[in-house]
Design a protein that fits this description.
The complex is a heterodimer of chains A (766) and B (414). By secondary structure, chain A is of the alpha/beta class. Chain A has 23 helices and 32 strands. In chain A, the strands form seven sheets. Chain A has a seven-stranded mixed beta sheet with strand order 1-11-18-17-14-16-15, with helices on both faces. In chain A, strands 6-7-5-8-9-4-10 form a seven-stranded parallel beta sheet, with helices on both faces. In chain A, strands 27, 28, 29, 30, 31 and 32 form a six-stranded antiparallel beta sheet that branches. Chain B has 16 helices and seven strands. A seven-stranded mixed beta sheet of chain B has the order 1-2-5-4-3-6-7, with helices on both faces. In chain B, 35% of the residues are buried. The model of chain B is unreliable at 265-280 (pLDDT under 50). The chains are: A alpha/beta (766), B alpha/beta (414).
């Protein structure tokens, strides 16, 4: 089936003209082993009932390691049967010793619910009588006590565990003292500042378990990243055994890098990914293949899905319709469950989604994955591409490049892309800002003993200076050789593991006097997407926003039939709060410090459907958003290197600086191992604080997550890569893929591409 | 933010210089404050004994058997926080209990308090309390089921012991049934004032108590804790004594809910000069002189739910007073019985009962929900607004309701 699509595409000259690279990965045989000796016959029966007669080699390996009490990390690709790697050893142990307990941690509630139903299927199917309970924010209080007392497997998430379970550990004594296993799924998602928090939650977990005499074995699961073992060991603080060789079979996989055709050669503008993706998706779906399209923003998901549906409605007017749905985090849980189920049972053939469907939710197997734009990291590419491909059939993944410099760089340098290992995940559990919060929580949970070091406290040996600072503040008391919590507040309540606050805005449909919850959105995105007069797209319908009440966290919308959508302009301003250090960088001075970033949405564009042309503007008045974070300032003082800015004519200086910023945004992610959304760039020709031209690079996580520091360290490499990009770019005077297209209003006469190129070379001292 | 690094460096330097802290032995040779004794190096206890107020006892004695309170502990805790988590420590635990008087005479009250001088003493506090609780026949508390008992169970767990479970009675729930609709709140302090007629003077607000204890610790956790914490200790002692009095009153009401004294007045308590203080402890006796309305329905339910329902129906048939009517209609509403509508209608038309009108409008709008019901609701609202006697707050409420109903009646835009 998929091979006829492969042939169709191969013999289509218009398609092939845009293909930059086509890689075929050969199929692989599965490697299986018989069930482990001594496997409880009820478990074996349950597995056979689901069509499993033997285990994959990696599942058998994981079973051995976990049962021997060693910490193990399973880092095999998607759809390799990872959940059996942990469910089997856990259930075997629980059947042998019903007093034993296991904790399962998933990053989100959706994934935990998925797991609970999968577990219930297995246990109900084999009638094992194991008690499985979910304990999260949605668990009603009537069920919480029984989860604590009798739940043999408790499913939760790091946030709930941190603020709901750990601080109340005496109520969990029966569970904790018998805790034998802790399963942590999707550990690759615990990176950056969030990952540093989770690492500390795990430290607190092990500390409290040890107080009750328990030393659980950890079973960790990760998607493919560059450094799975290192990351897991950083997260856990203990050695782990790596299981990465997957024994699951796979069919032949095709991976295509596709660059949309140029529509304006001079300016270098290419056809947009939205239109390319929907055309390709329709082509795929009409051959009977099942497809998933990953888009990079919520609006694009809605646009692509509705364009596909319009196209299909023209081609198929009878009941053999192809059903395509959109999917994203802001939909209501029951809507999402329905779509996931439809994908699994085949009643939905196509889905357009944000990266919400990249992670573990089981959506069955699809034949084709179309990536509308580079998702920001090589790992995401493989995750998203990995959604295509069922057990033994052929599959296809097509990455459509957007016009951003990063996309173009990737698609034109396919060896760079393919040879590049997936991004590594980095965390810093000893990040002082993070650690301080968790020392407080840990002190609330159990007093700290005496003078701390690696011998006296396995989990927080470095806590002494933190406790000293807290003692000065009066929140801990040092007496009788111990440090006791002596604060009035409940610390975990004020510590959020995630930088974005979890206070979502609820979107309410008020059309015709009704009052129906339509969906939700996080607060930060809400200001940029559902401001008054914005067009909100939700599945097949369009709504206009009547009112956005941030205080009450609701947004009222009314259904309208319009032919345009909206796109807000966000203005950002930056103020230096504190300079920490000043060093000499490559051709410039680098200052690291704290800044206040203020952003405001004041104006929005109205863009027509399909053509995406601008048909008007509107005004918005919303309060500004403020964020306190870390930044590095690249100070282009006069003199050597970056002072070559002075050599440029006056009217070119401002635009040149902006183009440098544009380049940094595009090239740095590949070196900082983050997404371009993770940091912001602000260019000032006459900076009010330093008095000279400055480019600020600031961290988008409040409080910082190390990116500003990493930028300072890697600046030279990044600038060199930027020079190479500009030189190698085939455009004439600048294009979206390198320095940005030429702007006739701003520049007079001179060629911006040359100007920037000379500036960069001068900066690096050539 | 940036100065966190500096503060950490300074704290580390300080820790490196300081010698390893030895477990500081509490000064045991320092005497405990007057009336207190050290039960352990960091745990003090005291007992207060006095007779129960004679007039209070006389009014209730007919309904009560004092023997039922022997070894029943009416207890309360003062803790370092409200969360009940692992870091919340009880530093003051105590109770009031009753010993029957000779030949049915006035019983005597004993108030016991246990005070934690500093955090390391908690295991000793738990051990002492454990012994005392083992001897008790039962426990009485106010909101203890959701707060104090789970907290104490956690502290026992952390100390490696099992909490000695005893039959427990939480007076919050019957209090709510009797007074929720009639008093602004059902907290112990409101009940103390409104029902027991007990007005504290210069009391330390409960919310300040944890901070006061931490201040005392930071000031050095001196042996003389009774001076800086005098208000806290007195507050707690009054809490447990008031709880005991409330418990006695509730028991009497439960015994004979139909007694006219509860409904008409707390008659039988002669007018008296208030505030008889006890020497040394400064506690107050109850003085429930003026009438406090009581929820008639709640009162009947204290004894027997089914009998109560019959009594309520009968009371409505024979009397048709507003409070009985509201209670009866409320009961019918919970049973989703449409007779409620008739009761409210009658109360509104005959007695102009605004609470009845509100309930009726809510019923029409949300329970019946038909266009006819909504139309009738609008009519009633118009009628009420046209009457001259409505207070402003009621008027505004009706206007809001009217606006909402009118909006719903509008057809949807095309």
């Amino acid at each position: 089936m998929a091979d006829s699509l492969v042939d169709t595409l191969r013999s289509d000259p218009t398609f092939m003209a845009q293909v930059q690279a086509w890689h075929t990965f050969p199929s692989r045989e599965g490697r299986t082993l018989p069930f482990p000796a001594g496997l409880d016959p009820r478990l074996a029966q349950g597995l056979r009932g689901r069509g499993v007669e033997r285990l994959y080699s990696h599942q058998a390996q994981a079973f051995d390691a976990a049962r021997s009490g060693r910490h193990v990390l399973i880092a095999t690709p998607t759809a390799s049967g990872k959940s059996l790697c942990y469910n089997l050893p856990v259930m075997q142990t629980l059947l042998e010793q019903p007093e034993a307990r296991a904790l399962y941690l998933f990053p989100t509630k959706a994934l935990s619910q998925d797991q609970q139903s999968e577990l219930n299927e297995t246990t109900l199917g084999a009638d094992l009588g194991l008690k499985i309970a979910t304990y999260d924010g949605d668990t009603p209080s009537s069920l919480r006590a029984s989860a604590r007392e009798t739940g043999q497997i408790v499913i939760s998430n790091p946030d709930m565990f941190h603020s709901g379970i750990l601080p109340n550990h005496p109520k969990w004594i029966k569970f904790l003292k018998n805790l034998r296993f802790v399963v942590v799924d999707e550990v690759h998602s615990y990176r950056g500042v969030f990952g540093s928090h989770v690492a500390n939650v795990l430290r607190r977990l092990r500390r409290v378990a040890a107080f009750y005499g328990a030393e659980p074995a950890f079973i960790l699961c990760s998607a493919t990243i560059g450094n799975p073992k290192e990351h897991a060991e950083n997260l856990l603080g203990s050695p782990v055994e790596l299981v990465s060789d997957s024994g699951a079979p796979s069919g032949e996989k095709h991976f295509i890098l596709y660059n949309p055709p140029l529509v304006d050669r001079v300016q270098g503008i290419r056809r947009g990914t939205v239109n390319e993706a929907q055309a390709l998706a329709v082509k795929v779906l009409t051959t009977g293949q099942k497809a998933i399209v990953f888009a990079r923003s919520r609006v694009r998901v809605e646009l692509i899905a509705s364009y596909i549906k319009e196209r299909l409605a023209n081609l198929y007017t009878d009941n053999r319709r192809i059903r395509v749905e959109s999917y994203r985090g802001g939909y209501l849980p029951n809507e999402r469950r329905e779509i996931e189920k439809g994908l699994r049972d085949g009643s939905i053939q196509g889905v357009v989604s944000t990266n919400a469907l990249e992670l573990g939710i089981d959506i069955g197997g699809l034949d084709v994955a179309i990536l509308a734009g580079f998702p920001g990291s090589v790992s995401s590419v493989w995750q998203q591409a990995g959604r295509a491909g069922r057990r033994q059939t052929e599959s296809l993944a097509i990455l459509i490049a957007g016009s951003s410099p990063l996309d173009q760089y990737m698609v034109q340098n396919d060896r760079y892309f393919l040879d590049r290992p997936p991004e590594s995940a980095f965390i810093n559990p000893d990040n002082p800002y993070v650690l301080m919060e968790h020392v407080k929580c840990a002190a609330f949970e159990l007093p700290f003993e005496g003078k701390l070091n690696a011998a006296t406290d396995r989990w927080f040996p470095q806590a002494t200076p933190f406790l000293g600072v807290l003692e000065d503040e009066g929140t801990v008391r040092h007496t009788g050789g111990r440090w006791y919590w002596s604060g009035l507040a409940y610390p975990a309540e004020n510590v959020s593991l995630r930088s974005a606050t979890a206070e979502n805005i609820v979107i309410i449909d008020t059309t015709g006097g009704k009052n129906q919850v339509l969906g939700e959105m996080d607060r930060a995105s809400a200001k940029e997407m559902i401001y008054p007069q914005a067009i909100y797209l939700h599945r097949d319908r369009q709504f206009v926003v009547l009112e956005l009440d941030l205080k009450e966290r609701r947004c009222l919308v009314e259904e309208r039939d319009v032919n345009f959508y909206t796109d807000a302009e966000v203005k950002t301003e930056l103020r230096v709060l504190h300079e920490d250090s000043r060093v000499a960088g490559p051709g410039c001075t680098l200052v690291l410090g704290d800044v206040l970033v203020r952003s405001q949405v004041s104006r929005f564009k109205k863009l027509k459907f399909h053509t995406h042309e601008n048909i008007g503007y509107g005004e918005v008045s919303l309060p500004e958003e403020q964020m306190h974070t870390r930044a590095v300032a690249l100070i282009l003082d006069a003199g050597a290197g970056a002072g070559s800015l002075d050599a440029l004519p006056e009217e070119l200086k401002g635009p040149a600086l902006i183009r440098i910023g544009h380049l940094l945004k595009g090239v740095a992610p590949a070196f900082l191992l983050c997404q371009s959304q993770d940091f912001g760039v602000s260019e000032r020709l006459r900076d009010p604080h330093f008095g000279v031209p400055v480019v600020y690079v600031y961290d988008q996580s409040p409080g910082g997550s190390g990116l500003a520091e990493a930028m300072a360290e890697q600046l030279e490499k990044i600038l060199k890569a930027a020079v190479n990009l500009v030189e190698a770019c085939p455009c004439g005077e600048g294009c979206p893929s390198c320095v940005g297209p030429r702007n006739p209003e701003e520049e007079v006469g001179l060629n911006p591409k040359d100007g920037v190129s000379r500036l960069l070379k001068g900066w690096l001292g050539h | 933010m940036a100065d966190l690094w500096e503060r950490l460096r300074a704290a580390q330097a300080k820790a490196d210089q300081a010698p390893a802290p030895e477990a500081e032995a509490a000064q045991q040779d320092e005497p405990a404050p007057a009336g207190w004794a050290w039960a352990a190096p960091l745990v003090a206890e005291r007992r207060l004994s006095f007779d129960l107020d004679g007039a209070f006892w006389a009014a209730l004695a007919g309904e009560l058997d004092a023997e039922a309170w022997r070894n029943m502990l009416c207890f309360d805790t003062e803790t370092t926080g409200l969360s009940g988590g692992a870091g919340t420590v009880p530093f003051l635990v105590g109770w009031a209990s009753l010993t029957p008087g000779d030949e049915g005479g006035v019983p005597s009250v004993e108030v016991r308090q246990w005070f934690l001088r500093d955090l390391p003493g908690e295991p000793d506090l738990i051990a002492a309390l454990d012994e005392a609780f083992q001897q008790a026949r039962g426990l009485v508390s106010f909101n203890g089921a959701s707060f104090d008992l789970p907290l104490l169970r956690s502290r026992w767990s952390l100390a490696g012991k099992a909490f000695p479970e005893r039959p427990h009675r939480d007076d919050l729930h019957p209090s709510r049934r009797l007074w929720k609709r009639l008093l602004p709140s059902c907290g112990l302090s409101t009940l103390e004032e409104a029902v027991l007629g007990l007005h504290r003077v210069d009391d330390v607000p409960g919310s300040l108590v944890p901070a006061l204890w931490f201040d005392y610790l930071r000031a050095g956790a001196a042996a003389d804790f009774a001076t800086p914490l005098e208000g806290v200790l007195r507050h707690h002692a009054q809490d447990v004594y008031s709880l005991l009095c409330l418990d006695l009153l509730l028991a009497a009401m439960r015994h004979r809910p139909e007694a006219p004294r509860w409904v008409e007045s707390f008659g039988g308590f002669p007018a008296r000069t208030p505030m008889a203080r006890l020497a040394g402890a400064g506690l107050l006796h109850p003085d429930p002189g003026p009438r406090t309305p009581v929820d008639f329905w709640g009162l009947l339910r204290l004894k027997d739910e089914d009998a109560a329902e019959r009594s309520l129906a009968d009371a409505w048939e024979s009397g048709r007073t507003e409070d009985v009517g509201l209670a009866w209609a409320d009961r019918l509403k919970r049973l989703r019985d449409p007779r409620a509508r008739g009761v409210w209608t009658e109360l509104w038309e005959a007695r102009h009962s605004y609470p009845a009108l509100e309930e009726l409008l809510k019923w029409l709008e949300h329970r019946e929900r038909t266009p006819a019901a909504r139309a009738q609701a609008l009519e009633l609202i118009e009628q009420a607004l046209n009457a001259a006697f409505l207070p402003r707050v009621w008027r505004e409420g009706l206007e809001r309701r009217r606006n909402r109903l009118q909006r719903l009646e509008r057809p949807a835009p095309p």
